[in-house]
């Protein structure tokens, strides 16, 4: 707990910072004042004086529509027919010269919604409230601020407040931002960061960077994305912002190329779309082409781009259509590298591109680690005379995994920005991996030695081996996918192996919905010997017939009507059903191992050799964030890929980051759980031990201790080795404790876990687990104070117990006198008939008053300005560190010698630090 002054200090400190950044501080008390201020700012921004009727029509225009509709209106201009018959285009936000907007800051604006609300700090742009900042005092978890914003969505935010685009929440030491997208979840709040992905958590530093007028103006104008298909607002994360900015800068101010290294799963589609869109808006750029290397990625990227902005890009079905699109005035388009190569290489197409080859063209190559090292890339880049090209990849070709000695840097030039897998896992944008290795076979001449990996084709394709693997998958599928809450893929070494595995699964008795997809003609452009991504492909006359049979099985399973003639529709349907978890297991040789995102996919079975970028791309199909139940992406390898896995992680993390990227071994989790369980059972040896709990603090302690074990046990259940018999608390006793835990969670108004899905933590459970011990101690003291009853016979004993508890804690001991005096004033004389007071509020007010007395005493003793000492405390609470130049200002009027000055400064600082220590409850 902190005093309420801490929240006020954050607020006043933030406003002071913004004013120093040329924000205009404005006092706005209510909606009427907000509208009046908006009118003045609208006149100012548009250099106009609106009549009452004209302003009224603008307000009518702004009132209608959803949050999404209002976001569109904000960025569009309004055609106002003036009273004299002339037309004036009214601008609400300058999206082209974003620094030339008018920025104001206000605080404690009252919103008379369904429930009266006061908002902490509001940033107004041209008079509209576009950024809302919700502050919580130090020591309060940030999620409470997020929850308050969600409550405002239900009870407040009416009128002009529906134009809010960005929310910022902070408790001073942690700060996050997110868009006005109600109920999207706390996982979609983001920390700001610098160019090197270091988090900017402190509010004062965040404000200096994020609220810089040009930066905030640019975020509002360019980097809040209106997702058209979902009708919601999105905003770029810092690494996406820096990547796009780097690309735009390179196009605008250089003739060089470059590439972006952002790990798989980090939102590359949004980043590339925003980059391509903004580059296409540059007046000297004639065409922007987003180039992929497979038709399925062409289709998928087009759909994702259309979700952001329907019709913004042109996608071509064949080379003839591509040539026609290049000849048109369309600026932004998506195509495959194969079609583009045909267009520039085949005379019947290239002769129609002679004018286009002289245009200023920017090409953005997707997944630039794959097909950019062959002749096609050279053919394309050599054909156009004024071309710049940039690559996006999650797994670049580096010196260590270069097949022919050339790296991504050799092809594309310098790396413009990087965001590695260790960064994404640390930011909780993707999950870690749990990698398991299964299968050891004996060679006939090595009976005394088990061999981890036998890579001969004969051994890999043996009936016994493949039958054992099929049985293993069927036996362990439910465990790996948490009783089918998720689904799985099986990546195998080539089409012949796919067909054999499919037939083996079909011969078994099970109820899994199993499908497969593979190309029945050679796809040379995706072949990559280094990674094994096209390993063992065999194309013969029967392959298409075999696939037709598998598609007939699929049609029977789902009531569809596909065949190889409409293969692309079959692909799209599998894509959709995998994402919706309608397919349990998908068998593939190469397809779906890159560029496919499905949050419900949590397990990848692997029976193929993978290396470096191929390995990490395949593994990364499983690690999309979904919910608390999905804690990692699970990889089950039937070949020994451990050395390859370690090498890939080391390469693509720029360090040895296996402890971040990979989950702990199962046995270490067992040891961790059992250590917790032993301590837990010492405290609660039986169920009866917790049945007589009286105080809320006892219940909270139990809930938190059990929750830690619960979370760990949930994690362990994803391992195939999971066995409750190896744990110190057996299944039945654990279930009994869990019942008590659920009951107490409800009593404490803590959202419980789902009782039907064993050990699944809610978001709130997970967040509460992270509360610090010092906060719990203060909560404990408040609970004890609230329970004190002066009229009871045991009051003196209870009162003494509170003070003994305070004295017994090293952090709280110094505050014993304060607590004693507070009890004397606020509790000792209270009668049974008195209305119970708000102890926390009373204690806050008492601390503020006592601290003010202490500051006044120091000011009198030292002969300095008391207001400056209050400013010193306020700045300390805002910044989290002393600002000693304030003490220097306080001493200046005393006219002291250098030695006296230093002694006086030291004396005052020591006394002020004592006050901070005594009255701070963080």
- In whole angstroms, the N-to-C terminal distance is 6 Å
As a whole number of angstroms, the C-alpha radius of gyration is 32 Å
Shape: globular
The name of the CATH architecture of the largest domain is Alpha-Beta Complex
Characterization of the model:
The protein is α/β, with parallel strands linked by helices. The chain has five domains: 5-235, tt1808, chain A (Alpha-Beta Complex); 238-419, 3-Layer(aba) Sandwich (Rossmann fold); 440-607 and 617-659, Rossmann fold; 666-771, Methane Monooxygenase Hydroxylase, Chain G, domain 1; 838-922, no CATH class. Helices cover 46% and strands 14% of the residues. The strands form seven sheets. A seven-stranded parallel β-sheet has the order 15-16-14-17-18-13-19, with helices on both faces. Strands 1-4-5-6-7-8 form a six-stranded mixed β-sheet, with helices on both faces. A six-stranded parallel β-sheet has the order 20-27-26-23-25-24, with helices on both faces. A hairpin with a 3-residue loop joins strand 4 and strand 5. Helix 1 crosses helix 33, helix 8 packs parallel to helix 9 (268-280) and helix 32 (839-862) packs antiparallel against helix 35. The longest helix has 24 residues, at 839-862. The chain is globular, with a radius of gyration of 32 Å. The termini are close together. The model is unreliable at 1-5, 441-454, 522-540 and 749-777 (pLDDT under 50).
